[in-house]
Amino acid sequence: MNKQSYIYIGVTIALSVLWIFFIYNPYSTEFEKLSQEIQANEAKLSDFELTIQKIPEFLKHREELKKKREFLNSRLYTKEEVINLFNLLHDEALKLNLKITEITPPIEELLYLNDIIPDSTKPQFLNIGVNLVGDYKNFGEFVKEIESESFFRGINNCKVSGSKEINNSLDLHIGFKALLGRIGEAS
Which CATH number fits the domain that encloses residue 144? Predict the structure, then answer.
């Protein structure tokens, strides 16, 4: 081999080395970065596809939870419901010429009812105490009327005190259990 062949071979090797360092390496590094980005984007895309596939199930579950929340909210007693109960008792007493002096739901029970989550298998009750002034007959009619209401669940206590000779009226007290959610419903 002659000297000129060595020069051609040397120049070819030098050009190959230069090509590798200045052209191939930067592009191969960029190519690797692009490959990694493509793989990352493919992973994101497959994750996104899985998410899209789960959307109908998620929407169905959300609707079920919404219905359950509406059902539970419908089971909650409302302040208006308790006020309606008091108004109903007041109207019954007025109709029978009885004067209500006090209606007392125990505050502890109201606080407890506000703190619990209602359960469809366990109804909510409230113990009510009603103090009245009137006579025996009208008191008996009052008790008969509230016993026929759908919310009534039993008498807890009853007390009659006073003398009929004085002012022709007695102090009357009845304590009973009311089922919340049934106020105003037909028996």
Answer: 3.30.70.60
**pLDDT exceeds 80 at position 74:** no
Q: Which of 33, 122, 128, 34 is nearest to 87 (CA)?
A: 128
- Number of Cβ atoms within 10 Å of the Cβ of 181: 18
Tell me whether residue 47 is exposed, middle or buried, using C-beta atoms within 10 angstroms of its C-beta: 0 to 12, 13 to 18, 19 or more.
exposed
Q: Is residue 122, in this structure, part of any structural domain at all?
A: yes
Closest CA to 158 of 182, 129, 133: 129
Assess if residue 186 is contained within a domain: no
CB-CB neighbours of 103 under 10 Å: 16
Res 186 pLDDT > 70: no
Q: Check if the beta carbon of residue 127 is closer than 8 Å to that of residue 164.
A: no
